[in-house]
TrEMBL record:
Organism this protein belongs to: Streptococcus pseudoporcinus LQ 940-04
Protein name from the UniProt record: EamA-like transporter family protein
Annotated InterPro entries: AA-Vitamin_Transporters, EamA_dom, EmrE-like
Sequence ranges assigned to domain EamA in this UniProt record: 6-144, 157-290
UniProt main location, coarse: membrane
Pfam families, A to Z: EamA
Length: 311
């Protein structure tokens, strides 16, 4: 099997795994596990595993970051405003809506990244970018109001947490760009998860919340942490290294589709046709942005190949 196909299968597997994690989180919160405890467990256990893997494969990078105050501050900022806030907002969005709706709302993050890039580069978005933003806004309005602008079809808290999940997902991508370029995704994400997994339980005193470890809850915890975090992040990083970040983001867009499907099949959630229309518009807007980036990357690669041709 070629590297491209192997990488594609890995990224698709990660997207499916993330879809499973959302449904698992919804199940656990509906069966008495508090969002503060769930966030703490997910970050801490995943952080310990990924840091252990990073120590085995990239020990020198881990040591350098841990002994450099400037790098520790940068990782801490990423841990709190990127990883922690995103995980917490996403799980709260699930709690007040459902796994499918929360996942789709979180997928608005490329729109916020686009706005950030436009502001930094001091340029207006292109026509295709504007069209993508219009589709995303329209899709969000449809999900939130069912096309009746005078009332909300989901709770205000659910909408607010979903939008915050999208904003913090954008921060999760923007904040560590330079760190990841220099030190690698595994080290940065692993340390970020560990830092936030140690910080958040202390702030919320997560140990005060009851943890029911019935058979079903243990299975759901494995789905959230083992499959939806440890497996998903590890496989996604490996797959993206093989197919490239733009192709990776395109393939990972299977996540909201899987999340909605599992929410319907496993949790018996009801989605109306107008909900699915809104979700479809958001996914189209994200795919348009990702496809544009893919075309740009392909053109640049082609230009570089042409420049290297012998005359």
């Amino acid at each position: 099997m070629s590297k491209k196909w192997s990488g594609s299968i890995m990224v698709l597997s990660a997207g499916i795994a993330w879809g499973i994690s959302g449904v698992s989180g919804q199940y656990l919160m509906s069966h008495g596990i508090h969002v503060n405890l769930l966030t703490s467990l997910r970050l801490l256990v995943s952080g310990l595993f990924l840091c252990g893997l990073a120590l085995v494969t990239q020990k020198s990078n881990v040591k350098k970051i841990l002994t450099t105050p400037k790098l520790l501050i940068a990782i801490s900022l990423f841990a709190i405003f990127g990883l922690l806030m995103n995980q917490y907002a996403y799980l709260n969005a699930i709690q007040y809506t459902n796994a499918g709706t929360a996942t789709v709302l979180q997928y608005l993050s490329p729109i916020f990244i686009l706005i950030y890039v436009s502001l930094v580069e001091k340029r207006w978005p292109s026509l295709s970018e504007c069209f993508s933003m219009v589709l995303a806004i329209l899709g969000t309005l449809i999900i939130a109001t069912h096309a009746h602008l005078s009332q909300l079809a989901i709770t205000p808290k659910g909408l607010a947490w979903g939008l915050l999940a999208a904003i913090t997902a954008a921060l999760y991508i923007i904040i560590p760009i330079r760190l990841i370029e220099k030190w690698g995704s595994l080290v940065v994400i692993g340390l970020g998860m560990l830092f936030s997994g140690l910080f958040f339980p202390l702030v919320t005193q997560a140990w005060q919340y009851p943890l029911s470890l019935s058979g079903d809850n243990l299975l759901a915890l494995f789905g959230l942490i083992g499959i939806g975090t440890i497996f998903a992040y590890t496989v996604f990083l490996k797959g993206t290294a093989l197919v490239g970040p733009v192709n990776g983001s395109l393939l990972a867009s299977v996540e909201p589709v899987v999340s909605v499907g599992f929410a319907i099949l496993l949790l018996k959630e009801v989605f109306y046709p107008i909900d699915l229309l809104g979700m479809l518009l958001i996914l189209i807007s994200v795919l348009l942005i990702s496809y544009r980036d893919w075309l740009i990357m392909r053109s640049l690669r082609k230009m570089n190949e042409d420049d290297n041709l012998p005359i």
